[in-house]
Q: What sequence folds into this?
């Protein structure tokens, strides 16, 4: 089954404690992306990756890092989380032939 | 500037009635347009897309959307609403850099 898997689904942490949200897809997609979803703001892109070792900033990259060492994985790293990063995060990969995004189930992060 | 607008934060429809969720866009060139749906506590799911061809596009769950070039609109429609259609709906357009621009989302509430 085609899937994008994110972990953890829910996390409560404290300011400054580094955390990583993992994302893995099994569709051999080259393009992957991270979004955050906040009420009234819709989806905002954090980072995206066109292929292995190729990453680029989206609209709201501040406070985040990503890496793409292999095609299937695209982790999101918060080196020093702050309360304004409390949000719902989605990872997505794109089917190149259709342009359709496949989303993970989301990771709800709370930073105290 | 390239943008997507969903002018209604919320749409309320009685079950069995037709529904419309509005979307207008501003993008250079020929638009690639998408609708996604987000059910509570879930990731986004692809509904339908317009790339080229027939202006009326049919998608999942009985939804369809009409592309209107002169009005730069891509409204989502369904002839007869179900309570289970209650969800958050996002319109998106692919910009000239092959990045998705998202609308802010419209909450659809179907009342029995």
A:
């Amino acid at each position: 089954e085609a899937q994008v898997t994110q972990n953890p689904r829910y996390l409560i942490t404290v300011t400054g404690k580094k955390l990583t949200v993992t994302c893995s897809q099994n569709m051999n997609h080259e393009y992957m992306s991270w979004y955050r979803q906040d009420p009234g703001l819709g989806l905002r892109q954090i980072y995206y990756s066109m292929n292995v070792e190729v990453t680029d900033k989206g609209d709201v990259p501040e406070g985040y890092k990503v890496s793409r060492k292999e095609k299937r994985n695209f982790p999101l790293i918060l080196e020093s989380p702050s309360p304004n990063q409390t949000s719902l995060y989605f990872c997505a990969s794109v089917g190149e032939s259709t342009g359709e995004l496949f989303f993970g189930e989301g990771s709800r992060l709370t930073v105290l | 500037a390239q943008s997507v607008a969903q002018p209604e934060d919320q749409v309320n429809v009685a079950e069995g009635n037709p529904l419309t969720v509005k979307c207008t866009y501003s993008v250079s060139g020929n638009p690639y347009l998408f609708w996604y749906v987000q059910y509570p506590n879930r990731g986004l799911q692809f509904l339908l897309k317009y790339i080229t061809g027939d202006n009326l596009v049919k998608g999942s769950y009985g939804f369809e959307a009409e592309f209107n070039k002169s009005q730069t609109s891509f409204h989502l429609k369904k002839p007869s609403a179900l309570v289970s259609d209650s969800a958050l709906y996002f319109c998106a357009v692919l910009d000239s850099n092959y990045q998705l621009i998202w609308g802010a989302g419209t909450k659809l509430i179907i009342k029995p």
